[in-house]
């Protein structure tokens, strides 16, 4: 409804990334990192093992074949080519392409005398002074991996010549590592294909773990919600010795302490209400007699001497204040005991306000100004609405400045009643407490005519009608009280 001042009910929105989801995702992330790390380490170790085994086999076999080389120096092209083809056929673990370099001579076991796979770095290492054992290198050309091996021929290979002395002839072997790379690629694919089932399997313990963690959290939420609705005897079944169990026990201890405190406060409040109610009832009978006597004394005060007349009038005034206080206390006691009832009738709101002002003789236009919209029909309790208007107008006349303006109009399906004055307004530190019982912002007003309960009774009567009352300061000075009651 427009203009409704009641707080809207909080709606629980869906939580796509709640604690359960985050726990499962964290568990799966740990599993994924573990699988990925294990796969990477396994891949690295297996790759090195496969390549090193192939490499060691090829290098050893090639060196052995070079040691069996039987050529004459200077080299004969055809004879050397035949030897290279023989060595190529003996390649392990697969046939090689073999190349030989001797000065400017280039011979190979293939139709091409030289290879683009051989790098200058490998040639430098093979022809370096004192290089007799050879070297190897893995290279990639056009996306294809190769193993290249260089072994220099030494005089120790020939009969009657000094050993381990380079002859200047260097043999090179080139072997395609495509099969090894294919095996490694197959391992990667197998690891990748096995990761998804592993994560799906890990999802089961993740869900179980999340359920185990969230169960006490849900119980704690339900218990807190139950306590928020006033069920202070709510407790959580705590089991185990982990942090969540400690939290449950702490909650139970706090709930028990809170229940004891609230029970004691309720008992104290009930005693205070009963005391105020009992005192009010007990005072009504003697006050009735005192009021009757003071009325007689007031009538005869003119025949008494001045001091006695002044004392009589003071007693009469204070007795009247005490009677008002007793009536207000009884009214508050009825509200506290939930015994106050509404007796509503459909009335003309403007006419009700006029009657209230006339009955209290608030008709002086210099003190009271009215802006009453006629024709507004509302279901009100006439007696209680009269009290609301009378308390607000009386408060404005006592503590504000004339003229006091009373407005009645309809807004958003609600009857709005405003009472504004031209006084100094309400101090900011007093404004939040104006409806508190017995609250008086100015210590000098402790002896004022009011009981300190008028605005509190006004608020209770407005709430009983299902409405609201708000106090504020006007921008141009003065205080304004606004009452909104559903029509």
From TrEMBL:
Taxonomic superkingdom: Bacteria
Reactions the enzyme catalyzes: ATP + protein L-histidine = ADP + protein N-phospho-L-histidine
First-level EC class: transferase
UniProt xrefs under Gene3D superfamilies: 1.10.287.130, 6.10.340.10, Histidine kinase-like ATPase, C-terminal domain (3.30.565.10)
Compartments where located: Cell membrane
Taxonomic placement: Bacteria, Bacillati, Actinomycetota, Actinomycetes, Kitasatosporales
Histidine kinase domain: residues covered: 278-487
Record protein name field: histidine kinase
Native source organism of the sequence: Streptomyces roseoviridis
Pfam families linked to this entry: HAMP, HATPase_c, HisKA
Domain HAMP as annotated: residue spans: 211-263
PANTHER family: SENSOR HISTIDINE KINASE TRCS (PTHR45436:SF5), SENSOR HISTIDINE KINASE YKOH (PTHR45436)
UniProt keyword list: Kinase, Membrane, Phosphoprotein, Transferase, Transmembrane, Transmembrane helix, Two-component regulatory system
EC number: 2.7.13.3
Entry's Gene Ontology molecular function annotations: kinase activity
């Amino acid at each position: 409804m427009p203009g409704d001042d009641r707080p809207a009910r909080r709606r629980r929105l869906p939580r796509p990334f709640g604690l359960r989801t985050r726990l499962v995702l964290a568990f799966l992330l740990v599993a994924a990192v573990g699988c990925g790390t294990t796969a990477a380490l396994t891949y690295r170790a297996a790759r090195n093992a496969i390549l090193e085994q192939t490499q060691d086999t090829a290098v050893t076999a090639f060196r052995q074949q070079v040691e069996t080389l039987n050529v004459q120096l200077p080299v004969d092209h055809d004879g050397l080519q035949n030897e290279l083809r023989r060595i190529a056929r003996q390649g392990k673990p697969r046939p090689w392409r073999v190349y030989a370099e001797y000065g400017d001579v280039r011979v190979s076991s293939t139709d091409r005398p030289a290879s683009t796979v051989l790098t200058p770095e490998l040639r430098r290492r093979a022809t370096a002074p004192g290089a007799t054992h050879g070297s190897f290198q893995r290279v990639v050309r056009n996306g294809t991996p190769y193993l290249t091996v260089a072994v220099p021929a030494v005089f120790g290979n020939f009969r009657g010549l000094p050993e381990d002395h380079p002859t200047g002839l260097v043999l090179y072997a080139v072997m395609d590592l495509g099969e090894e790379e294919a095996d490694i690629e197959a391992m990667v694919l197998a690891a990748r294909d096995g990761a998804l089932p592993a994560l799906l399997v890990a999802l089961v313990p993740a869900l179980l773990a999340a359920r185990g963690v969230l169960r006490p959290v849900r119980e704690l939420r339900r218990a807190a919600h139950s306590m928020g609705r006033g069920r202070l005897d709510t407790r959580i079944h705590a089991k185990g010795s982990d942090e969540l169990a400690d939290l449950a026990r702490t909650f139970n201890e706090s709930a028990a302490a809170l229940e004891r405190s609230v029970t004691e406060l309720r008992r104290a409040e009930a005693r205070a209400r009963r005391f105020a109610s009992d005192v009010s009832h007990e005072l009504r009978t003697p006050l009735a007699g005192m009021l009757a006597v003071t009325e007689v004394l007031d009538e005869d005060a003119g025949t008494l001497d001045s001091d006695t007349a002044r004392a009589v009038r003071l007693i009469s005034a204070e007795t009247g204040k005490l009677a008002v206080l007793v009536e207000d206390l009884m009214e508050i006691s009825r509200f506290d005991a939930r015994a106050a009832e509404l007796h509503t009738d459909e009335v003309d709101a403007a006419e009700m306000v006029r009657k209230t002002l006339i009955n209290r003789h608030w008709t002086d236009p210099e003190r009271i100004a009215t802006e009453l919209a006629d024709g507004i029909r509302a279901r009100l309790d006439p007696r209680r609405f009269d009290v609301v208007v009378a308390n607000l107008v009386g408060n404005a006349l006592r503590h504000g400045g004339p003229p006091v303006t009373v407005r009645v109009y309809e807004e958003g399906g609600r009857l709005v009643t405003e009472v504004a004055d031209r006084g100094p307004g309400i101090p900011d530190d007093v404004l939040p407490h104006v409806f508190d019982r017995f609250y008086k912002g100015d210590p000098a007003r402790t002896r004022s005519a009011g009981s300190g309960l008028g605005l509190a009774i006004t608020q209770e009567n407005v709430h009983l009608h299902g409405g609201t009352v708000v106090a504020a300061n006007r921008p141009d000075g003065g205080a304004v009280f606004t009452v909104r009651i559903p029509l």
